[in-house]
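Problem 12. The chain below contains 223 residues. Write out its predicted structure in token notation.
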Amino acid sequence: MNILIVEDDADLAAAMSDYLLLQGAECDFAYHGESGLARAQECRFDVIILDLMLPKMRGFEVCKQLRKQGNFTPILMLTACDTNTDQLTGFQAGIDDYVVKPCPMPLLWARLQALHRRDQPQTDQLSIDTLTLYFKELRATREGDEIKLTPIGWKILELLAQRSPEVVSRAELEDHAWPDSDVDAGNFNVQLHQLRKAVDKPFAYPLIHTLVGTGLCLRKKDG
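Solution.
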């Protein structure tokens, strides 16, 4: 699990990170609201731990901005405020859960795991336009016809489908498809060419689109 911790108390952020690393998570940090917003915009995280009272931009505003931009990464708000009004304001801003400081680390980890599970596909299959992915079987069809995919091609298509219609950066796709090794541009381009050939070429219109300088997306015909 890749977690962004937005917390101005460096000692608390370090303590959370030390515990979460022992659970197998990876952590990145921001120490005020503006840097937290920027980091969440730059990279994809599985969950964000967001403090309420932050310098430069409060946690509520960070959450509002992310949701307004179409970023729906699960957010766990960490706050010393435990009034009903604060909790309601947080949920209205778009948070998914909250914990009150001080929070036992096992409980924090359990909440993060629950948010991460909630964000995963809840069905064995997912359809975008005429394309259907079958996650348990690691296969896909379009207009009912089986699509022949390489293992890497499946991983790229899987992430694009799970994030559709959002744009996914090339770096994210590379990390997802080759999690334990670096990949050169030529290899990625070959895999992408084969994927487009399988998913789009035999059909009337493409579903995989490139946004130059931004990344790739999987979108419906009218998207």
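Discussion. The radius of gyration is 19 Å. Students who got a different answer should revisit the alignment rule from Section 12.3.
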